[in-house]
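Incident log, support desk, overnight shift.

02:14 A customer reports that sequence design results differ from what the structure should imply. Their input is reproduced verbatim below. On-call engineer (initials T.W.) acknowledged and began investigating.
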């Protein structure tokens, strides 16, 4: 399994990225280290073996406009890493840098499975490890009709990455009853209720934590707020625990407690990142602050997405959605024709 790793991006590049990529060799991955050679070489072992180096330009910086960078600096590390996937030289790509640049690379270098932009999704909290939430920030404005495509992406993810044969699909809302939520949620509810997905209605945040559905849908504004709230909550809990327990509990027990809290609340501690959905290839985006272990886990997530046939499953779900919508359109047309004749 060959995974191209953008080693120039992230807060701790290139040292932590190179170290995480090399560590991933123990997980059955042959890393392709993408970056400026003279900046990577000091961190590489002598003699090589099990990895390769792919020259590129610098990273797309945080705050740099991704579309402009794509036009002006096509050799930037994230673009080159994704290009390797398109050329068949890598099975997947991983970047923990500018998320917008990864989205642009995925959309323009690999291409889209459907119209629009890539989606971001995955398990958002360790208390519900078999529940995927999407969108988590790639698209902050989502039209009600787009929730059908979101459901297709989430269903494909649950089948490929979580091994759920028949995932339940729900809308994140302020109440479980039909009719709860804003106009977007209410209109999306009606569309999903008439779809072929296993739609179970609305879930509240508690239902998200309880695993009441394997696929929970929301727009990227809400999803990203849920993600960041869970991260902030974990840090607040840890700060309180440290203040209350330091000096009272053995250090080893306290360290174990901190690790368990982060595993259950911060998804990056478990998966390292998530794949962009809706594109013709596997591109995993991780947190900019990722260190060695998070980088390694992001690479493992990319490996699992390839092994689980994520792209093929997304294509299957989109074809199924298209057939269902075509049949519904034909049915409406037939009814309209019958009414006209009568």
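02:41 Re-run completed on a clean worker. Output:
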């Amino acid at each position: 399994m060959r995974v191209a790793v953008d080693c120039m991006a992230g807060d701790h590049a290139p040292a932590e990225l190179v170290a995480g990529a090399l560590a991933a060799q123990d997980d059955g991955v042959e890393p392709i280290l993408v970056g400026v050679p003279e900046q990577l070489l000091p961190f590489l072992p002598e003699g090589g073996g099990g990895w390769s180096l792919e020259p590129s330009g610098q990273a797309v910086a945080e705050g740099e406009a991704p579309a402009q960078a794509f036009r002006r600096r096509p050799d930037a590390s994230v673009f080159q890493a994704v290009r390797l996937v398109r050329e068949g030289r890598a099975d997947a790509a991983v970047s923990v840098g500018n998320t917008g640049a990864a989205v642009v690379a995925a959309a323009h270098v690999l291409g889209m499975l459907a119209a629009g932009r890539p989606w971001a999704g995955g398990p958002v909290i360790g208390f519900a490890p078999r529940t995927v939430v999407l969108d988590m920030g790639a698209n902050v404005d989502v039209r009600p009709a787009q929730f059908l495509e979101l459901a297709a992406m989430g269903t494909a993810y649950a089948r490929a990455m979580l091994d759920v044969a028949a995932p339940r699909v729900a809308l994140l809302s302020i109440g479980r009853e039909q009719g709860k939520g804003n106009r977007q949620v209410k209109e999306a509810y009606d569309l999903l209720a008439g779809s072929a997905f296993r739609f179970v209605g609305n879930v509240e945040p508690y239902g998200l934590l309880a695993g009441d559905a394997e696929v929970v849908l929301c727009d990227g504004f809400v999803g990203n707020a849920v993600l960041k709230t869970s991260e902030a909550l974990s840090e607040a809990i840890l700060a309180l625990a440290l203040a209350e327990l330091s000096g009272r509990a053995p250090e080893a027990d306290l360290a174990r407690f901190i690790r368990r809290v982060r595993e259950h609340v911060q998804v990056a501690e478990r998966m390292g990142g998530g794949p962009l959905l809706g594109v013709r290839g596997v591109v995993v985006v991780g947190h900019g602050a990722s260190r060695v272990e998070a980088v390694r886990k992001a690479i493992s997530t990319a490996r699992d997405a390839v092994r689980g046939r994520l792209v093929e499953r997304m294509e299957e779900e989109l074809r199924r959605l298209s057939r269902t919508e075509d049949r519904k359109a034909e049915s409406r047309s037939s009814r309209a024709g019958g009414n006209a004749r009568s």
